[in-house]
Specification:
three-stranded antiparallel sheet, 5 helices, alpha+beta, single chain
Length: 118
């Protein structure tokens, strides 16, 4: 038997999926770009396994989508308007400029380094 959720149940499930602090940090770090896990590790200073666990929950909730290129998996928001929702929540809590985590200089992410010889 397939029991469909009410609109408020769908909204509640969605908000629960993004509610954990680490997931909000991940969503902000992804931003409007496509991002790999090593990039998230460098920005958030979390272990890869911890980030992957949260990414799996976000994929299951259909909040992000992923694609593989070689040995790297890239993640992006399914709907970048989610960032507006997060900013609105910040504003409601007196936070005017919600700044995503910054990128440290020592990142070895393939998005940040140029391969040798190029």
């Amino acid at each position: 038997m397939n029991i469909s959720k009410s609109p408020t149940e769908k909204i509640s499930s969605f908000l629960q999926a993004i509610a954990p602090n680490a997931r909000l940090e991940i969503l902000l770090a992804i931003g409007t770009e496509e991002t790999c896990v090593c990039h998230l590790e460098a920005r958030l200073n979390y272990r890869q396994a911890y980030i992957s666990q949260h990414l799996m929950a976000l994929r299951k909730a259909e909040i992000i989508e992923s694609r593989r290129k070689g040995r790297f998996i890239y993640h992006q928001l399914k709907n970048p308007a989610l960032l507006d929702l997060i900013q609105q929540a910040a504003t409601l809590n007196g936070i005017e400029n919600l700044v995503p985590p910054s990128m440290p200089e020592e990142c070895r992410c393939p998005n940040c380094i140029t391969p040798t010889g190029e």
